[in-house]
Specification:
Length: about 270
Amino acid sequence: MTATTDTAPRTAAPPGPAAPRVPSALRHGATLAWRGIVKTIHSPEALLDVTLQPVIFLLLFVFVFGGAISGDPSTYLQFALPGVLVQTFVFASAGTGVALADDLSTGIFDRFRSLPIARSAPLLGAIGADLVRYLTSGLIMLGLGVLLGFRFSTDPLAVLAGLGLVTVFAFGLCWVFTALAMVVRQPRSVQGLSALIMLPITFGSNVFVPAATMPSWLRGFVELNPVSKLSDAVRGLFTGGPVAGHATAALLASAVLIAIFAPLAVALYQRRT
């Protein structure tokens, strides 16, 4: 009796796909961001939610409170417009989390998961497309401000730097609300919790009134608030004044937000999907 042995060589399993590198994540994210931008181009009404609210805020604060705060609406407009621009981006960044929570409930991210793309690309794409919407809204509001009488006292490069600074800060905040959307599943809950974060950091700042007019116990918080630093930097870039210290503080705050919440949001997204 002869024992038979299986002499057929074992074939090694084919190597799995390599883990996407960061450049791939950026490239895939840019592709998905362009998809979101095209959707906005075909549905321009999607800009209404990030455009009408800041326009109403600007008109109300300038013409209702401007005389009481600065003596006349024209003078107050020079102070308020950079602040309202900051407030627009800060408030709008919460919408990224709400939209992601809504999209997660529709199953679109399950379809993204079946594609050979970086796992973080859908989040980068959603945030990138939203930043373009917010920037478009900011440009519309600046145009309205010019029509109302706002005048830039600096050069175009400084104005572009101001818009870029606000966009970088909004990018950091978007990761905060993206992480929140991964934990809180209901869009309404994300919206409610976002408001709890947004209201203190925007109205507890110098966006609408100078910190010097506030009581001392509140002034300390306002002066340390990164939104105040951002507002001061944008005012300096638009109408002149100190910029370097305020801009550095705003960029550091943005870097901290991105360093903490971007990896956290991606990890939570991978666990959830």
